[in-house]
Amino acid sequence: MTTITTEELSATTLLRFATAGSVDDGKSTLVGRLLHDSKSVLADQLEAVEHASRKRGQEAPDLALLTDGLRAEREQGITIDVAYRYFATPRRRFILADTPGHVQYTRNMVTGASTAELTVVLVDARNGVVEQTRRHAAIAALLRVPHVVLAVNKMDLVGYEEKVFAAIAEEFTAYATELGVPEVTAIPISALAGDNVVEPSATMDWYGGPTVLEHLETVPVSHDLRHCHARLPVQYVIRPQSAELPDYRGYAGQIAAGSFHVGEEVTVLPSGRTSRISGIDLLGEPVDVAWTTQSVTVLLEDDIDVSRGDLIVPSKDAPATTQDIEATVCHVADQPLAVGHRVLLKHGTRTVKAIVKDIPSRLTLSDLSLHPHPGQLAANDIGRVKIRTAEPLPVDAYADSRRTGSFILIDPSDGTTLTAGMVGESFARPEPVRDAADDDGWDF
C-alpha cells in the first residue's frame, strides 16, 4: 500500500465536488451512503439519524438525514438548501456540496457547483434522463466543471439490468458531449443498498468500472493555479496610523488566481495606475511570494489611490477594461430578467450600476437549440445577455478564470440576486448564435 505523507495530503489531494439530479433521484441518500460506508460519520450523528428514522416508522436508518438538516427538508423528504460536508479517506480529502434537485431550487445548484471540480449527476434508472437532468448537465458545462459523473441510481428497482444502464449512459453522454463537457464517467449504483457506492456490487458483475468513491479518490485534479492570470481583488484598505505603524498602507484581499512576488510591477484597475510591490504580509508575517487562495496584504512602493473593489494585477498580464459585457447567464430569481432592466452588477469585490442591453438568445434544454431574442429570461432559464455597465470593469473570460470571469446581477431595490453570469463563450463548443446589435442609445 502506498504511504501518503501529511504534506501530500494537505497540498494536493483536496477534491471539491457537488451532487445534482432531479427530485427523489437519491442524492442525499448517496451522500449519506458515502459518509456512512467510508466511516466518516460520528457515532452520535448515526445515533441521531437512527432515532429520527425510528420516529418516522423506518426500520433501517435513513442515510439521507445525514445531509438533509433543515426541518422542512426532513418533513418533505427533499433537499432545499446546499448542504456542505467535509470528510476524508486515506487517499484524499473532500468538500462535498449536496445540492437540491427541485426546479425551484436550481439557484442553489448553481451555488454549490460554482467552485466544484467534479459534479455527480444522479438519474433514477426508472425515469432516465429528464429535463432537470439536462438542466444540471447544462449548468455543469456552463460552470466549466471539468469532470462529470453520471450515477444511474436505483438499479435495484430495474432488476440491475445492464441494458437499462447502457441506454441512459449513452443518451446522457451524447447530450453532455454536445454541451462540451470534457469527461463523463457513468456508474450504475443503488445508493439505498450500497451497490457501487463505496464497495463493488455483487449483483452487477457486468460492470467492471470503479465505484463512486474509488473514482472520487483517483480522478486527476490540478490545484496549481499559480501559473494562471494573477488577480487580487481588493477587499479592504489597512491603515492603522498607530505609533508603531504611522505610514503603513496595505491592500488586503484573497488572491483569486496566480501568484504575486515582492518587486513585481503591478497595475491597479480600473484606474490603470502602476506601481511595484514593496511587501507582502501573510498571517502577520512578511513573505516574498504569495499565491492563489491565500489571504494577504500587499504594500506598494507608490502612494496611489487604491480602494475596495479595485483589482491588482501584474502589469504584463492586465485584462482589458470594458463597459460592454457579453455573457451566458443562469437566471435564478422568480421575477424575469428583461431587456432594459436596471440592475447592479457585482464582479469580485466591486459593485456597479448596469443595464441589460440585449438578450440575444435563450437555450432550449431539450435539443440545445437557441431561441433568438426572447425578450426576457424566466426563473431557471439559461441564455446570452449583453450588459452595459456605468463604470469600466476588468473582466476575464470565464474559460480563463472562474473567479474573475464571473459575476452576479442584483436587484437594486431589495438586494435580491437575480442572475449568475459567466463572461465570454457559453460552453466549450462554438456558439451558434451571434447578434450584432448596435451600441447606440445608452445614457452612460
What report would you give on this structure?
The chain has 444 residues and is α+β, with helices and mostly antiparallel strands. The relative contact order is 0.11. The strands form 5 sheets. Strands 7, 8, 9, 11, 12, 13, 15 and 16 form an 8-stranded antiparallel sheet that branches. A 6-stranded mixed sheet has the order 2-3-1-4-5-6, with helices on both faces. It has helices at residues 6-12, 27-37, 43-55, 71-76, 106-113, 131-142, 162-179, 212-218; strands at residues 14-21, 83-89, 92-98, 118-124, 147-153, 184-188, 232-233, 236-238, 250-254, 259-261, 265-269, 273-282, 285-287, 289-291, 295-300, 311-314, 321-331, 337-338, 342-347, 350-363, 370-372, 376-377, 382-394, 406-410, 417-423.
Provide the fold topology.
Blueprint: H1 6-12, E1 14-21, H2 27-37, H3 43-55, H4 71-76, E2 83-89, E3 92-98, H5 106-113, E4 118-124, H6 131-142, E5 147-153, H7 162-179, E6 184-188, H8 212-218, E7 232-233, E8 236-238, E9 250-254, E10 259-261, E11 265-269, E12 273-282, E13 285-287, E14 289-291, E15 295-300, E16 311-314, E17 321-331, E18 337-338, E19 342-347, E20 350-363, E21 370-372, E22 376-377, E23 382-394, E24 406-410, E25 417-423
Parallel strand pairs: 1-3, 1-4, 4-5, 5-6
Antiparallel strand pairs: 2-3, 7-16, 8-9, 9-15, 10-14, 11-12, 11-16, 12-13, 12-15, 17-23, 17-25, 18-22, 19-20, 19-24, 20-21, 20-23, 24-25
Helix pairs in contact: 6-7
